Amino acid sequence: MARLVVRFYRRRLVRLGPVALEAYTLERVEEREGDLVEFMGEISERYRGSPEWAVEAAEVQGREERRVSVYTSGSGPLLFQRPALLKSVTVLDAAAVSASPQPLHRMPRYRPPGELYVYTGSLAVEMPGVYAVLLETDKGLRLVRPGEGMKKDSNSERGR
Asked: 3-class SS at 148?
């Protein structure tokens, strides 16, 4: 038997400036003893057909997470391999990127209100001429371009 730390996340639609994305809020954390594979099998049965939930279970030894598994029945592009705490969203303008690269601190940047996590989900930008959106999280950076997680029908395709 291993010690498991289980995090339950609920999906919701969030707007940060011109960016609309599906993000998650951490609803609760539980600790239990058990087998990671068996537990995730139980979770998949319990949450099947509930697209608003993501469940992350980590097998913990001391303070280190040895193995991690994440389950969601929701759909959408994979933004991170596991839920990651969102620090900021930066919108990269196509004209500014192609004409003369600008430092990131000059690009529109938005910080989430409170703790939000990104994992799977859609992302759309209501702003013309967007090259990409940069997601900064506690687990690293992710550049999301139209067709790579950003909805193609968003206004980001205009002005190209």
From this structure: coil
